[in-house]
Design a protein that fits this description.
The structure is a single chain. By secondary structure, the protein is an alpha/beta fold. The protein has 3 domains: about 140 residues, no CATH class; about 100 residues, Rossmann fold; about 200 residues, no CATH class. It has 15 helices and 13 strands. The strands form 4 sheets. It has a 6-stranded mixed β-sheet. It has a 3-stranded antiparallel β-sheet with strand order 10-9-12. It has a two-stranded antiparallel sheet with strand order 7-8. A hairpin with a 2-residue loop joins strand 3 and strand 4. The longest helix has about 35 residues.
């Protein structure tokens, strides 16, 4: 096994030791803090069992945040990951303790543990990254790379750029050792100061005679068929190879390679959601919705009674909306309008206060007395928790629109449908109904193009603030 491949495995062990050390340190540190009304601590062995759940949770969260790769991250990025993992771990552990009803666990110890662990995780990982970077700069663990390129100007430019970036980032652990070319020999004897070793027909000899860990092919799309024989050669000799993808240069889509039905496909994702990230968002949605349901189950029952007592009709308003890639689903809300409100909308079209193909009216005469309050507080949205649990919606995402409005959105704006609709989103967190249609769509696309779990957490926090202050509520 190459030494670089050991680094992620070492990190797995280091992280487990860090979590364990942080828990023990937190326990004894907590004992030094005056009681101040906190529940007294029991023996340490009363709490050690939680490490059986904590260590896998931290491994999982670190994996989802891309923390187990051979890439050396900057200190600021490491601190950011440590904070995200700490917050996610605290919420997950709190939910776990709630679900198993372990009420005797000391909450102050849990909070102190997460704070100490986050700091220790950041320090140990920064120290480890510094050691790895130093080791790679020394060349002791560098992967030797051979660059194969063509004689057209674009390929020469990109191959030169690749070599320049390899040398500028020695902590990545890749050291270029030579260049081979397709086609006739170049007049120049080097590329970016690196010797040109001859034509690509010398590849087999070089792979046998020199230490080569990776081969980078930088060629135009028209030459991909010629590259195939050399890819097979690298495969037979056990040498990793990479081909610069110039089939299409996306402006927004994220390119990645995936294997589908045992066939390799170069894919272009309209959102930054890869398999692991999709799973992370689904897990976050499911457990977040469960937590919301546990908190709001009783208030929702009381609100259902209020809706039923104050106006005729069903408690819930159920309407087909456009979901992921246009899938239809039935969205739930507490009913805030009179029965048959949809049939009355045509008569109010002239009073629409929202540009574009959507309808918004501040003082809508169809709203019931209790409905106005539910809308201002956004409590009418709570039944959508069930939509999140079913998988039709997410906690955070573009707002789901009625089918007639979804169908009217055309062109690049339809990229907003490439993610599941959410109970809240950038639109709601940025002023809700006070934001016009064009800004609304811009915010939806901004969310789609820049999604991360951290952004979801920020939007949830901003939504709470917007709801509490009543900003933009109609």
């Amino acid at each position: 096994m190459h030494r670089q491949a050991l680094f992620p495995r070492l990190l797995v062990v280091i992280d487990a030791l860090t979590v364990t050390a942080a828990f023990v340190a937190s326990y004894y540190l907590r004992r030094l803090i005056p009681h101040m009304g906190f529940r007294p601590l029991g023996p340490i062995d009363h709490y050690l069992w939680i490490l059986l759940a904590t260590i896998p949770i931290w491994w999982f969260l670190l994996f989802l945040n891309g923390a187990y790769t051979t890439k050396v991250e900057r200190p600021l990025a490491i601190v950011r990951v440590a904070l995200v993992v700490g917050i996610g771990g605290l919420l997950t552990l709190a939910l776990l303790l709630f679900l198993i009803k372990f009420e005797t666990f000391n909450r102050s110890l849990l909070v102190l543990f997460v704070a100490v662990e986050t700091a220790m995780l950041a320090v140990t990982r920064i120290a480890f990254a510094s050691w790895v970077a130093l080791s790679r700069r020394s060349g002791r663990t560098a992967r030797h790379a051979l660059v194969v390129t063509a004689d057209d100007p674009e390929s020469r430019r990109e191959a030169g750029l690749l070599l320049e970036r390899m040398r500028r980032n020695p902590s990545d652990g890749v050291a270029p050792i030579g260049v081979l070319t397709f086609g006739p020999a170049w007049e120049k004897k080097d590329l970016e100061g690196l010797a040109i070793n001859g034509g690509v027909e010398k590849l087999a000899d070089l792979l046998h005679q020199a230490v080569v860990d990776e081969v980078y092919f930088v060629v135009p799309p028209a030459m991909l068929e010629q590259v195939s024989d050399y890819l097979k050669l690298c495969e037979e000799l056990g040498v990793e190879c990479k081909v610069l993808a110039r089939l299409y240069r996306p402006t927004l889509a994220r390119p990645y390679l995936e294997v589908s039905y045992d066939m390799p496909f170069f894919s272009f994702a309209p959102t930054p959601l890869y398999v692991g990230q999709r799973y992370a968002k689904s897990v976050f949605d499911f457990f977040g919705a469960l937590a919301l349901l546990a908190v709001f189950a009783l208030p929702m029952a009381l609100i259902a009674i209020l809706v039923k007592l104050t106006s005729r009709g069903p408690v819930l308003f159920r309407q087909e909306r456009g979901g992921l890639h246009g899938r239809r689903f039935c969205m739930n809300k507490f009913r805030t309008m009179v029965v048959g409100a949809e049939n009355l909308q045509a008569g109010l079209a002239g009073r629409n206060q929202m540009s574009g193909p959507v309808f918004k009216l501040a003082k809508d005469p169809r709203v019931t007395p209790i409905g106005g309050w539910l809308r201002r507080t956004s409590i009418d949205e709570l039944p959508q928790i069930m939509n999140v649990l079913k998988g039709d919606m997410s906690l955070v995402g573009p707002r789901p629109l009625p089918l007639s409005e979804s169908a009217a959105i055309e062109g690049p704006l339809r990229r907003r449908f490439s993610m599941k609709p959410g109970m809240t989103g950038l639109w709601q967190a940025s002023g809700r109904s006070s934001v016009d249609f064009h800004d609304w769509m811009r915010l939806d696309l901004e969310y789609v193009d820049n999604w991360s779990l951290r952004l979801d957490a920020q939007i949830l926090l901003r939504t709470v603030i917007a709801v509490l202050t009543g900003k933009g509520a109609h």
